[in-house]
Design a protein that fits this description.
By secondary structure, this protein is of the alpha/beta class. It contains four helices and 14 strands. A hairpin with a 4-residue loop joins strand 13 and strand 14. It is globular. The termini are far apart.
Length: about 180
């Protein structure tokens, strides 16, 4: 890399750092080219080298350490095909939750009303109304089944101030808490 390229690279990194410091996560990623809908929540997320290939619908929560891959694997063929590069767009529709540490691979579309479990590796497109988990991610349930299981545990604390929320949770009866069976 020549001196001019190094200087340009440093200037770009400085500008990028300034944008990060002065913008919300959503604004920052929009400036980098990610198409983001309304009412989205972004944790510490990595949209990869081509963030402009990622489209996010409305009401999508992406938690911490989620990574989006829009390319990959061509490195092993570079001696044979030096200019080889291939890409896949990633599309997230509406009302999606992506758990911590999930990986979304090139070319994946996640339809509406989906939960992606933490640490899942999503290698294929996901249909509407399901929960996926694992490596590689597989359908493990439906949103309707999940809702019917958790609704009885609702403590109604969303929107309460922290002091009131703590009070409600600490005074709740044991049957208001989720508990899991032992593994067999």
């Amino acid at each position: 890399m020549n001196l001019v390229s190094r200087i340009n690279n440093l200037i770009n990194k400085a500008q990028d750092g300034f944008i990060k410091l002065t913008s919300s996560k959503t604004e920052y990623w929009r400036k980098k080219g990610v198409k983001i809908g309304n009412m989205c929540s972004l944790g510490s997320t990595n949209f990869g080298g081509e963030p402009y290939l990622v489209t996010i619908g409305n009401h999508v929560q992406i938690t911490d350490n989620v990574r989006f891959f829009t390319h990959g694997g061509g490195w092993v063929f570079r001696d044979e095909i030096p200019d080889l590069d291939f890409f896949g767009k990633i599309v997230l529709k509406d009302n999606i939750y992506i758990g911590s540490g999930a990986y979304i691979l090139p070319g994946v579309t996640i339809e509406s009303n989906v939960i992606i479990a933490a640490r899942s590796v999503v290698t294929k497109s996901v249909p509407s109304g399901v929960i996926v988990a694992g490596n590689p991610a597989k359908i493990v349930g439906t949103l309707d089944d999940f809702k019917s299981k958790i609704i009885r545990y609702n403590m109604g604390t969303k929107g309460l101030d922290e002091k009131r929320k703590i009070e409600v949770i600490l005074n709740a009866s044991q049957d208001k808490f989720i508990s899991k069976d032992y593994m067999k």
